[in-house]
Fold this sequence. Notes:
Shape of chain A: globular
CATH class of the domain at 59-370 in chain A: Alpha Beta
Largest sheet of chain A: 9 strands, mixed
Distance between the termini of chain A: 27 Å
Number of helices of chain A: 12
Helix content of chain A: 25-40%
Radius of gyration of chain A: 21 Å
Largest interface: A-B, 46 and 47 residues
Oligomer: homotetramer
Number of strands of chain A: 17
Strand content of chain A: 15-25%
CATH superfamily of the domain at 59-370 in chain A: Metal-dependent hydrolases
Amino acid sequence: MQSKQIDTIIRGGTVVTPSGTAVQDIGVSGGKISELGNAIASSAPTEIDARGLLVLPGGVDTHCHIEQMSGAGLMNADTFRTATRSAAMGGTTTTVSFAAQHAGQKMRQVVGDYAALARKGAVIDHAFHMIAADIGNDNLTEDIPALISEGHRSIKIFTTYAKVRQDDKSIIDILALARDTEALVCFHAENDGLIGHMTEKLLSEGKTAPKYHAASHPREAEIEAIDRMCRFAEFTGARIMIFHVSTREGAEIVRQARSRGVRVQAETCPHYLFMTADVLERENAARFMCSPPQRSRDDQEALWNAMADGTIELVTSDHAPYRMDASGKFAHGEDAPFNQIANGMPGLETRLPLMFDTMVSSGRLGVEAFVQLTATAPARTFGLDGKGAIVEGFDADLAIWDPEATHNYGANDLHDNAGYNPFEGTTVKGLPLHVFSRGKILVRDRSLLTEAPQGRWLPMSAVFGGVTARLV
Amino acid sequence: MQSKQIDTIIRGGTVVTPSGTAVQDIGVSGGKISELGNAIASSAPTEIDARGLLVLPGGVDTHCHIEQMSGAGLMNADTFRTATRSAAMGGTTTTVSFAAQHAGQKMRQVVGDYAALARKGAVIDHAFHMIAADIGNDNLTEDIPALISEGHRSIKIFTTYAKVRQDDKSIIDILALARDTEALVCFHAENDGLIGHMTEKLLSEGKTAPKYHAASHPREAEIEAIDRMCRFAEFTGARIMIFHVSTREGAEIVRQARSRGVRVQAETCPHYLFMTADVLERENAARFMCSPPQRSRDDQEALWNAMADGTIELVTSDHAPYRMDASGKFAHGEDAPFNQIANGMPGLETRLPLMFDTMVSSGRLGVEAFVQLTATAPARTFGLDGKGAIVEGFDADLAIWDPEATHNYGANDLHDNAGYNPFEGTTVKGLPLHVFSRGKILVRDRSLLTEAPQGRWLPMSAVFGGVTARLV
Amino acid sequence: MQSKQIDTIIRGGTVVTPSGTAVQDIGVSGGKISELGNAIASSAPTEIDARGLLVLPGGVDTHCHIEQMSGAGLMNADTFRTATRSAAMGGTTTTVSFAAQHAGQKMRQVVGDYAALARKGAVIDHAFHMIAADIGNDNLTEDIPALISEGHRSIKIFTTYAKVRQDDKSIIDILALARDTEALVCFHAENDGLIGHMTEKLLSEGKTAPKYHAASHPREAEIEAIDRMCRFAEFTGARIMIFHVSTREGAEIVRQARSRGVRVQAETCPHYLFMTADVLERENAARFMCSPPQRSRDDQEALWNAMADGTIELVTSDHAPYRMDASGKFAHGEDAPFNQIANGMPGLETRLPLMFDTMVSSGRLGVEAFVQLTATAPARTFGLDGKGAIVEGFDADLAIWDPEATHNYGANDLHDNAGYNPFEGTTVKGLPLHVFSRGKILVRDRSLLTEAPQGRWLPMSAVFGGVTARLV
Amino acid sequence: MQSKQIDTIIRGGTVVTPSGTAVQDIGVSGGKISELGNAIASSAPTEIDARGLLVLPGGVDTHCHIEQMSGAGLMNADTFRTATRSAAMGGTTTTVSFAAQHAGQKMRQVVGDYAALARKGAVIDHAFHMIAADIGNDNLTEDIPALISEGHRSIKIFTTYAKVRQDDKSIIDILALARDTEALVCFHAENDGLIGHMTEKLLSEGKTAPKYHAASHPREAEIEAIDRMCRFAEFTGARIMIFHVSTREGAEIVRQARSRGVRVQAETCPHYLFMTADVLERENAARFMCSPPQRSRDDQEALWNAMADGTIELVTSDHAPYRMDASGKFAHGEDAPFNQIANGMPGLETRLPLMFDTMVSSGRLGVEAFVQLTATAPARTFGLDGKGAIVEGFDADLAIWDPEATHNYGANDLHDNAGYNPFEGTTVKGLPLHVFSRGKILVRDRSLLTEAPQGRWLPMSAVFGGVTARLV
């Protein structure tokens, strides 16, 4: 019996927990879920009537770029304040963004700087992936292992992009360290040579429009690099995560690697599930440019199958906001060739409604799988204890969804700072009505109540054994 | 807050729930888990000190033969009483055994007869698979769909064994029915022709000893039949379960089928994980005869990988008890040729300790995966609501394990009626100390307290969407 | 130096031999190729100017139905005379058709009867596959092994069609015999149960039109059966041939089986390469009905890739002629349901022009591959010594092709007795101008010169080691 | 009828030609095979009695290092004289060795230098692969395309070895050129990062003995790189050759790539077929060091299956001779760490006897496949017209084998200059008795008759369409 004061009671909602889905009440005390049950007897200062609504854990978005300086020296459009308020509006209550090292920098300083920015602005809780762009300068031997032991247990590696990419030996050296220190290594996996060859060829032929971006990042680039990273993981025994899988073959390579016992996990993103390459032939196509680029309907089917059979375990946003002006996409001019236009699009706020619409409203895989893919699995994978599930004792990060509410996305109706919505024109059914972070209500009736920087940094616990994760 | 009287409190154990593993107390009221939490304040008539122990859901064994007449007309050695007391001693609190139709019988009668036997003897809760051996005689059009709608949602089909096996068209007809009525079809999948050819050949060469049993059931027989059943499931859209996968190729076929969206699940059994074909060259090898037969170390590794990556989701016993005398294995004499010796071995009691020893004590995959494979997934797969997990409101079917206790299996130390232990000589670490069924203690300090027939029949709820099951 | 009289000299053609392709002369003596070389000095009674023409071995068509009684008791439209004259007109100089056993018949009698028919009518040389429809009655133990040793080294098995299909055990028994006696076992591989289930379902829904034929033979039926036959071949070690592979998956299964060392070969036919399933929606669709049915463009691409990488080694016609009247397709009436319309279409005459048009005229794979797939490989696979290649000492079975000649197929312009051309409306480029059988000219300037029954039966030599065949 | 003088007649041998294997006579005139037939009537100055012997085309060894400066600056032990006399003694009459560019060199100069060395020393005919180690300096735009058009149609690329290896973009640039100019690109495919990581790790642990060489070149290094090169070939459409495939997975990757239409071919070498990794634990293990290193029995089986099913089309020697002294293996001292010991072993002379022993004497795949793998396919693949087969008009490069002769290899019984035989102690059955190059006898009764530098450079004809090659 709970003796402590209950701060908030959410009554009568359909609650999705790891133990099942049922109508029950939730009591929140001191920022934690303190009670789950039928008809909580006591009363609370705040009571929410959730009858007819779905009560879900707040989303966990483990792949987003916030207030980040790109390898090309471009600052993205969001501060932690703007990004995380957007996240909250979309039902997400935890972000993992990047502490982006550049050549010559010490990793400890990099992580410290991003942590300070987040402390100053983040509305919700958060953690960081360390982008390893320079493993010399004692970073591999000192800063990185020390930071891992302090809870920064995720490293991000690029296999492409000139200023940040790591060569194979460096990657393997990092993997060996990660294996020994229980860190997880995440990859942007595309073959740099294929991209370089095609970019050079296309530009030399005067093919500079955004639509050539897709051709410059051929599917073989992703396929090859995913295979390579899986082989390295197999060799070293390290745990890895393949970010943003976009192709049928990429998913199949991950599947086969897992069957051999390789400790590899994979994510995909809504823009691969809901867009195809032809978006790059639309007007203002720079809006849709991202890497890897969108693919085909056949790939989308394969990605859904890979989510169904457990090969792809996470869906994240890869939120990478750049404004459609000189501060962002057009830093090199309105007519810049495709390779000088920043990659990425905003997604923190749309990720969950898009997935909910298909998975819950349209019934593809169902609400439990929606929660698993967008909250529970991301939290478990990155050791974010107390997040991603509705469990007594966990943080009261909750999103109460109205499954009947609909919204038709407009040109600029998001709460980040990118200034556009790449899903303009799409109608979603099912929206987060109220959102709580550690028991505090951030969003009420789809309106933002606060932008106070109350988010806390989350250490990652020693991430556990990879392949066993998914059995539970 | 729970106002009802708490009957039992289990205090201070390490409790494995779908929400995670933590030290907490469990309150039991009216046969249900009524409370989970830290330091339950009230007291109860029965209090169990579980400090240092693991509190797990009772095991769910969805593949066991109890009081069953085989196709060859042989009654197996167990009654529901002996079988289920053995299960309880091994930490298992739910069985799914077979209602075995024979040619000419009406399915409703068959199910009724087995249900009566179970009512009379079962110490624990239970359900049935309907063995479809005769789909004419209005069974397919009347009895079976009616029984499905009443909660008998699992059908078992043999692809081999003369008197019970179904031909391909019948199998497909059943699958089409199962798809339309939300039933699950389980397969003993071995190619009858290969077995027939080899049996005839071996016998004609005078090779009649038990060791030739393995040669008479070649791995190709399983591989072929698993592929065939997966193709049928792909074609019909029905959900299927492949029983007792024993080969590397069998697991890979299931994996590939799932990647194509086929709704197939798979189980394996301890004798495939812990024995290899050479047991059939030991003395009294009839003890170890089962179908499919044991395979190789390479297959064992592949099966473990398939459990790790989610391809094999269940571990069951395939308990099939025959005494080593004229009532069982030697019904056709001590020197009967291999094809006249009953297949199967007892396993209800050893399943969980063997798996615990490797998964928990030795650390392969871990305790959460152990619970998932042996309790949660079996219960979810077959729609056994309220079973297989420690969740408030679920049945208080609990097994409290002492992770330090050890036992060296003897020649005849099990509580079933088979009269021998096929794992004689094996030492396991980790044993169920106390076992509860719907809140009632059956086993205390590893001693059986009751054999009263208190088990209840469990209807299977409409089993849900197959591939999504595993995401949660 | 050849001292014997040269009967015929073909001068200046581009000759395709196993040693390469070059302009050279060919001398023919006593029905054999007696000399190959540049500028044969002597003269001959017959001299052919082949400048600008391609001189190829006569085609070898190892899959055709001639004067055959079907399992359903229907005699097909061709006699050996009409079928083989059609073959000759299409550039084919060797056929392997079927000696079709029915239940209750002795195989020796069956083979004898067909041999007599062929002796009486065949214009070209020929051999037989024995269709094994009844292996009891001493056939498996006496007739078949004896006939194999006499040179009837090919057995055909149906896995479907009620009156002729063999069950798995019989198939395996036959494979074991074939392995021991160096015979090759050919399969019509489709799952009987799937076809039966779908046929029953479609008919019960009143879906009787020819277009439902495709649905009644789903791709899974072929895929499943090919896998099964490959597993049986793997188990027994016998050599097998999969007839008429029509699906991507079917080809991949053969490829994977070969990589495991299984002695399996495969063929496909022009109607799978040049037609898709939508032909069954055209008028008079009974014309196009065959089993397996036509598939998709994607399958066609996969079949071409499988020819390119050596997985599919033969292209045959599966010539199965039925007239569009009560003697054939409409034996059960003009409105007979699809399952009572005879399967098959004529193809002996169109096989080579269709393949030449694509492979040589359009350049897909090239003329050497054309010869290999349609003549050399069929001859070698079935041990037809002296056939299928232009080699000194081989039979002078030659086809001189005009690569520039074109023809637009008409409604009824073939020389068989089917009365229609399923490729009506197709234009081919490249046609056989002159055709020789054992040195005797049968076709001159695309006109048939003789229908005399001069063909001889060809014993099959002990077919050699399967997988090594393709290396040479 | 041949009117020209016949120089040599080989009578009564069993001759293996593309048209088949038969006892016949061979006439040689002007260095060419002028006549093939039964009982050549005329007489010749030289007549060879080949009764009871096998007459085969001289071997074509398309992978050997002769008089080559390695990337590490070490000259190998052979001159063209010593290497090619050794080849001839082993039944090989054509070599393709390397024109090894180093950084800063112009390719035309490099090719010219090697051609001059060969002209001065080569006893037999020969061609060159251009090793592309520096594609800047106008090499890619000028020298290489010009040389290709002159008949140097093969380019070799290393993916590892510091001074010569090419990065991915350079490789793709070369592949694009090769596709456009009809050249073939050959790969030493091993991942440089894995090798670098392991080498550094092993050395840091003091593990410097030769046996650690195997660990420093893990199988994943080959597997990864083969996959990568296949993906690049798929993307560019270029034809590629994977040199020295040593692993099961490597062969499977090639097989799957071919099934997708990728124009990839593969070779393996005797040391992978007849040695396993444990040779590196023998005394003087430096003798056996090569890259990739020897593997396991399981890999050997997979390589044989891959030869049988056509995935691996060539068997070459990878002859790389270094003496066991300071001029070679021990250039960095007797105790040099494994990474400072030259890789490679002599093999020109042993390649064919080793393969003959298994393929012909022991019957694995047979003599036609032996000729195909070691002579015909290498010649066709590299466009070496007139080589690799016994065909009228082809060069009279012939090896007459005594299938009964045996030899037990000694410590130093080869005719190259390496000073040791890595197959010491192995007994082979079947040896080349007489060897002819362009009609001139080089070896008679297993004795070398001449070391005169009579070999000629062979231009490579535009190599034809890859995958179609194997169909003929």
